[in-house]
Amino acid sequence: EQLTETLDELARELDRAHVFHSWSAQSQASSLVVASGRGARVWDHSGREYLDFSSQLVNVNIGHQHPAVVQAIREQAELLTTIAPSTVNLARGEAAKRIVSHAPAGFHKVFFTNGGADANENAIRMARLHTGRDKILSTYRSYHGNTGAAVVATGDWRRVPNEFARGHVHFFGPYLYRSEFWATTPEEESERALRHLRRVIEAEGPSSIAAILLETIPGTAGIMLPPPGYLAGVRELADRHGILLILDEVMCGFGRSGRWFAFDGYGVRPDLITFAKGVNSGYVPAGGVIISDPIAATFDDRVFPGGLTYSGHPLAMASIVATLDTMASEGIVDNARDIGEIQIGPALAELAGKHAVIGEVRGEGVFWAMELVADRDTREPLPAASMGRLKSALVERGLLPFVQDNRIHVVPPCVVTPEEVADAVAIYDEVLSTALEGEG
Ligand code: PLP
User: Fold this and answer.
1) Which of 263, 302, 250, 26 is nearest to 123 (CA)?
2) Residue 366 shares a structural domain with residue 402
3) Mean of the pLDDT values across residues 417-437?
4) EC number(s) (predicted)?
5) Which of 1, 96, 253, 276 is the most exposed place for a label (fewest CB within 10 A)?
């Protein structure tokens, strides 16, 4: 007991002394220790356990420490831990074949990266080289990663201090609850958001635009399911002007939405697909671009000017093969779809019926947001201090939440069980009842 508590303390001490954390003022970095996990649960060295309803950064779709994936990494490590991307490697070919098997017809090639940001970075580069055009259009409510072009394509606050790439233009996507277009129905929101995009394209000069880059379902920005006709309308606008459509499936892909790709639910076919996170649940860092045939053909006889030392890294490739095979054989994507429809959606709607602080619940699969408001009529966001209190109270009761702005994202692994969902909903319920007492 004493020894394990000491390990937690040692981990905190070393972290405070030597680790520089992402997106944080260093004095305010988290002190939560995680030593191990299994499925939808993680624990520290002393055995204090948490229900992981964040899937970390919404990436551990297959759950923690799935034995089939761990075993595949172990076996690959014994065979070959690393090799240059210029070589031919069986695990890499097997991984690419499985990835394209889930893509629409007309996609045969995968460019592997280390994660999601460099996937978008390279998709943007391919679009520019293929079209000979320059500008990339993306939405204000988006996150595309933290590298040169990806962070400037990003719309949210993280772009602003990092705005050093050129050729990026932003527009507003649909978001009915906080409509930029004074819309009151999903149809109206869709139509007006498309009109706005058409005007942005016309004003920027259609022949200067290489691609429109969109998260199929904006994730960190709030899990806004696209309204009817929106993505089809974007596709149509793009086609009319010879603009490519890049769909960022980094967060919403590989099971999160209850489908292999989120765009499978919207009858739209992109030109480039970017992925990372769920493809191997981050067991080894990996991401990539799935390339449609005409764009791949651009580089048949022309050099593609891009590469990474760890592109197609064997440990990542073996983990992708095992992850995708296991997700298929264990019906993990179906579980995400069913549990979202049958249990998570109805349970969150019931919470919204009980707690006036919940302004809207939206989502599908294991990809849900509860948007919290100080006032249901004005929809004024719940202030940051209250969100902080809710977050601490959830962690104290053993639930790791994903809290962003004024929202709690309910994003457990795709393998989450009905019992775990019931436990989590009881914790949300209790915390929403008690943690804000004495406010407002
Ligand atoms: N795109 C989306 C939609 C994301 O959610 C993220 C990460 O959260 C990224 C890209 C960047 O991925 P990475 O952090 O692996 O670079």
Assistant:
1) 250
2) yes
3) 96
4) 2.6.1.55
5) 1
Q: Rounded to the nearest whole angstrom, what is the distance from the C-alpha of residue 59 to the centroid of ligand 1?
A: 9
> In this structure, are 215 and 302 located in the same domain?
yes
Pairwise CA distance, residues 421 & 158, whole Å: 32
Which residues are bridge partners to 50 per DSSP? 42
Instruction: Please say whether the dihedral angle defined by the alpha carbons of residues 260, 266, 270 and 274, taken in this order, is positive or negative.
Output: negative
Pairing label, strands 287-292, 107-113 = antiparallel
Same domain, 154 and 279: yes
Same structural domain for residues 259 and 310? Answer: yes
Q: How far apart are CA 440 and CA 434, in angstroms?
A: 13
- Ranges of beta strands (E only) in 114-248 are 135-139, 168-171, 209-215, 244-248
Q: Probe ligand 1: pick from 141, 142, 154, 250, max atoms within 8 Å of CB?
A: 250
ipTM, 2 dp = 0.99
Question: CB of 201 within 8 A of CB of 135?
Answer: no
Tally the domains of the chain.
2
Q: Whose CA is nearest to atom 12 of ligand 1?
A: 116
Q: How far is the CA of 151 from the centre of ligand 1 (A)?
A: 10
Q: Are residues 46 and 79 in the same domain?
A: no
Task: List the domain range (segments joined by +) for residue 195.
Answer: 67-329
Residue 67: phi and psi, rounded to 5, are -60, -35
CATH at residue 151: 3.40.640.10
The pLDDT tens digits of the residues spanning 11-44 come to 999 999 999 999 999 999 999 999 999 999 999 9
Residues with CB under 6 A from ligand 1: 57, 115-117, 120, 143-145, 215, 219-220, 248, 250-251, 276, 287
Asked whether residue 314 falls in the same domain as residue 187, the answer is: yes
Contact 141/224 with Cβ under 8 angstroms? yes
CA 9, CA 40: separation in Å to the nearest integer? 24
CATH no. for residue 411? 3.90.1150.10
* CA 297–ligand 1 middle distance (angstroms): 27
* 268 and 388 assigned to the same domain: no
pLDDT at 1: 61
